[in-house]
Automatic annotation (TrEMBL):
Region ranges (Disordered): 36-58
GO cellular component: a single term: mitochondrial inner membrane
PANTHER family: 54S RIBOSOMAL PROTEIN L1, MITOCHONDRIAL (PTHR36427), LARGE RIBOSOMAL SUBUNIT PROTEIN UL1M (PTHR36427:SF3)
Gene3D superfamilies linked to this entry: 3.30.190.20, 3.40.50.790
Similarity section: Belongs to the universal ribosomal protein uL1 family.
Protein name: Large ribosomal subunit protein uL1m
Record's subcellular location: Mitochondrion
Domain of life: Eukaryota
UniProt keyword Lyase, yes or no: no
Length: 242
């Protein structure tokens, strides 16, 4: 009996077992032949078709509200609650499972960042000063200035580090690390070596970290909440304590 075509054979076994006068059939190759390179147009059309199929697959009709507490979540519409009701539920769950009462409350904000011609918005970061602070911790802020009077004002208003160009070396070597950097306009031309190092934390007017009002800048950045836009349109940040 010949070995099955779908299995393996010993070298030369098919010749020894084959009847005389019959040419043995060569064994099957168990590797795929190289596929021809598809045209760009066909690849693009296939990708569009795959996207359409995915949309059809996920657009299944959702069922009404479940009748009990055990159900498949993807078969029902996701429930939504008003702000007061949601906060009340968080407090109730905290009492039931004995979690830490001062744990943070987080929020996910989905922004509508659609633009014309399918352009994307680069992720960006900003900061906001909330009317009611929910943490006792303050951010460490460094102030760049070479004016002694401005330096004294910065120290009186809670600056963690105050100095001029002599701080550049320590920052580049990671000897000084703070949460935010602010500066006065007179010293900004001398801080160019820090542009690549600090990146988005480099002092600038758009982020309100460059100006002459040192007390106002320090108050903002010592108590502010920083947030970032990730994945083009999602903000994930904490906003309160339970």
């Amino acid at each position: 009996v010949l070995a099955p075509r779908s299995g393996w054979v010993f070298p030369g076994l098919d010749r020894r077992l084959a009847p005389s006068g019959v040419t043995p059939v060569p064994p099957l190759r168990f590797y795929a032949a190289a596929a021809k390179t598809a045209k760009k147009g066909s690849q693009k059309g296939k990708q569009e078709e795959d996207k359409k199929q995915q949309v059809r697959r996920w657009r299944r009709p959702l069922m009404s509200k479940p009748v009990d507490d055990v159900y498949l979540t993807w078969l029902y519409e996701r429930p939504s609650y008003d702000l007061e009701e949601a906060v009340g539920m968080l407090k109730k769950f905290q009492e039931l499972d004995f979690t830490y009462p001062k744990q943070f409350v987080y929020i996910n904000v989905f922004l509508d960042m659609a633009l014309q011609k399918n352009k994307k918005v680069d992720p960006f970061a900003s900061s906001v000063l909330l009317p009611h602070r929910f943490t006792e911790d303050t951010n460490r802020v460094l102030v760049f200035t070479e004016n002694e009077q401005e330096a004294e004002i910065a120290r009186e208003n809670g600056a963690a580090v105050v100095g001029g160009v002599e701080l550049i070396k320590w920052i580049l070597e990671d000897e000084i690390q703070v949460d935010f950097y602010v500066a006065v306009p007179a010293i900004i031309p001398k801080l160019i070596p820090l542009r690549n190092k600090l990146k988005r934390k480099y002092p600038n007017t758009k982020r309100k970290s460059l100006g002459n009002d040192i007390p106002k800048m320090l108050q903002h950045f010592r108590e502010c909440l920083e947030y970032m836009v990730q994945d083009e349109r999602i903000i994930k940040t904490r906003i309160a304590r339970v």
